[in-house]
User: Which sequence fits this backbone?
């Protein structure tokens, strides 16, 4: 995959940053639980469809946390559960801080959800976002919080919120959305916002594609 040429920021001083995005989800949201009886009869569950290590040992499954709702594209979260994955070096180096492998309640693989906390125009760790991928598409993008200027970096984040959902899981699609949005920024290039988000989305997309190729 060709890595896009990074934008060069012009010397324009920005004053003030936007307040936290309205998309911020409360960290105190409780997990939803549902009780599911999983049959182990071989004529009901084919071994090729279920990774036995992914099925909880108990019949009580903690379904997907509601914080992932937007990243999952508004799917009914009680139809899924997730298992925390170890972060790879590439994910960590691009400031991805969480990855969850998502399963249907029958134990079959569904997709992944990710959270990143990247730098931006607002400074270090100023942009937090979540994104989900399944069925070879981006399920949704949530700008959880940011310290971006409303007429600058927020334009890039809002473009991803509005346009990434449903696009094929190809990093170039995310890049094109950000570049098209940047063309509407009158003050210049929003490279301080775009580049860290772009790096994280590139490593997220690569991780997802590498995992589905072995499912």
Assistant:
């Amino acid at each position: 995959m060709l890595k896009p040429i990074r934008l060069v920021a012009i010397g324009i001083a920005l004053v003030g940053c936007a307040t936290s995005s309205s998309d911020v989800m409360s960290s105190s949201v409780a997990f939803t639980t549902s009780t599911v009886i999983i049959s182990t009869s071989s004529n009901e569950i084919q071994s090729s469809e279920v990774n036995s290590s992914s099925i909880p040992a108990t019949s009580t499954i903690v379904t997907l946390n509601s914080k992932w709702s937007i990243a999952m594209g508004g799917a009914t979260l009680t139809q899924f559960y997730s298992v925390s994955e170890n972060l790879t070096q590439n994910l960590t180096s691009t400031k991805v801080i969480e990855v969850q492998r998502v399963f249907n309640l029958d134990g079959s693989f569904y997709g992944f959800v990710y959270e990143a906390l990247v730098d931006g125009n607002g400074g270090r760790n100023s942009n937090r976002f979540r994104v989900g991928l399944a069925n070879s598409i981006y399920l949704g993008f949530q700008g959880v919080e940011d310290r971006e200027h409303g007429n600058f970096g927020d334009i890039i984040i809002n473009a991803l919120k509005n346009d990434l959902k449903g696009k094929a899981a190809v990093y170039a699609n995310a890049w094109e959305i950000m570049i098209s949005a940047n063309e509407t920024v009158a003050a210049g290039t929003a490279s301080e916002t775009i580049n860290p988000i772009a790096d994280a989305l590139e490593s997220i997309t690569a991780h997802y594609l590498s995992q589905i190729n072995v499912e």
In short: Residues 42 and 141 are 38 Å apart (CA to CA). Residues 1-5, 8-53 have pLDDT under 50 and may be disordered.
